[in-house]
Amino acid sequence: DTEVTQTPKHLVMGMTNKKSLKCEQHMGHRAMYWYKQKAKKPPELMFVYSYEKLSINESVPSRFSPECPNSSLLNLHLHALQPEDSALYLCASSPTTDRVTYGYTFGSGTRLTVV
Amino acid sequence: LAKTTQPISMDSYEGQEVNITCSHNNIATNDYITWYQQFPSQGPRFIIQGYKTKVTNEVASLFIPADRKSSTLSLPRVSLSDTAVYYCLVGDPGGSQGNLIFGKGTKLSVKP
Questions:
Q1: SS3 of residue A39 by DSSP
Q2: Cβ-count burial of B106 within 10 angstroms (0-12 exposed, 13-18 middle, 19+ buried)?
Q3: Residue A15, min C-alpha distance to chain B (Å)
């Protein structure tokens, strides 16, 4: 399996809702990442997990809460989001944070709309 | 992390060779250059990575001059399906942040 799988593919949520995005990989990668991408903009790094521990948080608001329950799974918990948080949320993985010689493997993303 | 500069957009026709240049004047000794391709509403896909001179794979070639202050992604004989955004990233794959920061990218439009 050489894929990163993200679910759901589309999500519409109200500003008072709580939802979660899920990311899964079975390549044995020990580094996983969350990116946010607005329309016509490049992906922006949000969080980096290394060996299931949060290693980088790019000053992301607390309404985004990441979780890495095991080496194959990465979640992004969402609460009290704003309409401007609507974006494509991308998950990626790599063997480790210091072995990315062959790049990162990205999922297809979750298209999030906050209403 | 080294900052990169790419053309915002490029147009081409099917069957032509396309060269996209990326400038990275402050590239560090340990930095590698990596290119990704992204289609709308999909995640970026790794294309090629190199350190110096020339790297070729089944999809593209990457040319890096001796001073490493720029690099050129070459796509041979493009087709309509190569229409996408191409990102150049520069960073140290052995460092704690790898190549994590995306620049603005180049939107390539291939016409019939």
A1: coil
A2: buried
A3: 23
Interface residues on A facing B, Cβ-Cβ cutoff 8 A: 4, 33, 42-45, 48, 55-56, 88, 90-92, 94, 97-109, 111
Could you read off the pLDDT of A41-65 as tens digits, one per residue? Answer: 999 989 999 899 998 887 899 999 9
Beta-carbon contacts of A26 under 8 Å, excluding residues fewer than 6 positions away, are A1, A72
> Which residue matches tokens 């759901």?
A8
Residue-wise pLDDT for B75-105, tens only, equals 999 999 999 999 998 877 666 555 577 888 9
Higher pLDDT, A94 or B60: B60
Q: Which among B2, B8, B59 has a CA at the least distance from the CA of B33?
A: B2
B44 and chain A in contact, CB less than 8 A: yes
Residue A88 near residue A113, CB atoms below 8 Å: no
Query: Are B48 and B59 contacting, i.e. CB atoms less than 8 angstroms apart?
Result: yes
- Within chain A, which residues score under 50 in pLDDT? none
Tokens of A74: 């990465």
Q: CA angle, A11 as apex, A7 and A12 as ends, to 5°? A: 170
pLDDT digit string, tens, across residues B65-74: 999 999 999 9
pLDDT in the model for residue A110: 97
